[in-house]
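Loading example: each entry is read as two labelled lines plus one structure line.
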Amino acid sequence: MPSTRFVDRLLARIAHVGSPTCIGLDPVVDRLPESIRTSSTSDAEAVEAFCIGVIDATAEHAAAFKPQSACFERLGSAGVAVLERVVAQAKANEVPVVLDAKRGDIGSTAEHYAKAVLAIGADSVTVNAYLGPSTIEPYLDAGLGVFVLVRTSNPDSDAVQSNELTTGGTVAELMAGLVSKSGQPRAGERGMSDVGAVVGLTKSADGQSLRKLMPGQIFLVPGYGAQGGCAEDLKPLLTESDIPGRGVLVNASRSVIYAEPEPGESWSAAVARAAKAMRDDLASVIG
Amino acid sequence: MPSTRFVDRLLARIAHVGSPTCIGLDPVVDRLPESIRTSSTSDAEAVEAFCIGVIDATAEHAAAFKPQSACFERLGSAGVAVLERVVAQAKANEVPVVLDAKRGDIGSTAEHYAKAVLAIGADSVTVNAYLGPSTIEPYLDAGLGVFVLVRTSNPDSDAVQSNELTTGGTVAELMAGLVSKSGQPRAGERGMSDVGAVVGLTKSADGQSLRKLMPGQIFLVPGYGAQGGCAEDLKPLLTESDIPGRGVLVNASRSVIYAEPEPGESWSAAVARAAKAMRDDLASVIG
């Protein structure tokens, strides 16, 4: 019987696709194709039609989909209902789903959030552990994977994450240590853990030290494409081993889902082309 | 014309009630009164009936209501629709609403979350700023107040927040400095800011230093009641000035909303009694 751990299902999918490509679903009404906007009677309907179209166009190249919860929540409860259906469509295509919700709460409240992630249907969730390691456990106990925010790609993340501690290392490295420790009892068949980490591609100067601190973590890596990171920047983040995807899951959102069609090309063909190009680019480095 | 700033509306409400009592709405189906559970056809319906009942029973004693987003999200999109109606009921009673959602994201994503808070109808939101100060601004630009997580009341919060930095002070104190700085251009009529801070009552040993670092912040203080804090523990957190509520907004959830009825007393009368007792207890210390 195959493992039912999130991390093992994710690694199997990465192996199947041959590339750790994660496609971010960050739908913003203003940026949707004209044809979708004109044929929809509400923002929620347009977002749903777009996301279903993206999923169907790109699933074969996708090791995971990462819906951005905020983009759905901004449409109110109707948007959350759309999110449920979008996640179901990803799952129908056998692609694991990382809900990018950056939740961070403790004890019974974190248990409620874990149930919320299950209600939406996702397999894993991004988590903010500023409140301590007890923010992480309830998701794991519910059978979900987590990606804990360690080192983020935004310009002002240094204001918190780069500060040096008297005990040595930075705040981000402290977080990395907590993540590694939480992950140890949650390892799957390949030695990787259900507890992953978010490590921004544009901060890959810190990558080598973070990889040393977190050998058993899959790194969810935003910053590829629109945010300026390229496949070459991944190298310090990779594991040495034969783990599918070499320990990373690389996300692009805007550069794929809003890919510019060439003359005569449909929007969904352009999106499929961008997803395939990303898949191939990553495969060439991860190889 | 009265100020439309969140902080000024909150202070006016605290002055009106005569106490900085915040009532947390953390509805959990298993704990709802028997009469509500038997008369409801779904969990979402039961949660809605309970919260509306709590609001109507306690509004006169409440300086604010703080719905716990996770408790609604766990019911899926139907739960988020309930949250929208619960917030509307609080607003109909002229009580400001703090959405306890602990959101934390950056740039355009934080803008989406700000829109989501507006869609739900709340006046302010709890925010996690591990990603940096740019997590805070989009909520303020949308006209919302924020309470940034600085020092939380859970036992394992020390694992991150108590670490000492080489530049002096702890991680929590670093966060306090960022919060104070973000808040400076957002001060209202009384010199307090739309940028508040979450400071747990059970960590009030740190309170004096945090108050010194954040003189212009309203402290949202969880930990009163069920979590073991009492009004006396507030003293290190208070401002010296004549600010209504002396710079704190004190939350209790379970000890109020699940108050045990006395023989012959209805559940809603018990909840009203617990809210009034909390109001009076806080008023005696803040006085």
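Residues 6-286 of chain A form a domain with the TIM Barrel fold (CATH 3.20.20.70).
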